[in-house]
Design a protein that fits this description.
- This protein has 90 residues and is an alpha+beta fold.
- It has a single domain, classed as Gcn5-related N-acetyltransferase (GNAT) (Aminopeptidase, 3-Layer(aba) Sandwich), CATH 3.40.630.
- It contains two helices and three strands.
- The chain has a three-stranded antiparallel β-sheet with strand order 1-3-2, with helices on one face.
- The longest helix is centred in the first third of the chain and has 15 residues.
- It is globular and about 35 Å long.
- One of its GO terms (molecular function) is protein-N-terminal amino-acid acetyltransferase activity.
- It comes from Plectus sambesii.
Length: 90
């Protein structure tokens, strides 16, 4: 789970944390990153989409509160033709 205190939002802290995690995964030999986020969490969706994540699937009633989620995927190496490839640039 990734969360940034409300008083510290809009400082790109979340973006920097995710980018650092992606870079560490690349160094470890991972070829993709998969995560889920609530369909109503527009800020998180915007952050991940700006980093190249694509929506892979909608997961109905995924969370205990009954809210749906999107499964997002980022290919780090050898992406399918229709997917974005993270190259480390912001």
């Amino acid at each position: 789970m990734l969360a940034v205190d409300e008083n510290c939002r809009r400082l790109r802290i979340g973006t920097r944390l995710v980018v650092q995690a992606i870079e560490n995964m690349q160094k470890s030999g991972c070829d993709e990153v998969v995560l889920e986020t609530e369909v109503t969490n527009l800020n998180a969706l915007r952050l991940y989409q700006n980093l190249g994540f694509v929506r892979e699937k909608r997961l109905f009633r995924y969370y205990l509160n009954g809210v749906d989620a999107f499964r997002l995927k980022l290919f780090l190496a050898h992406p399918p033709d229709s997917y974005y490839f993270y190259d480390g640039a912001l």
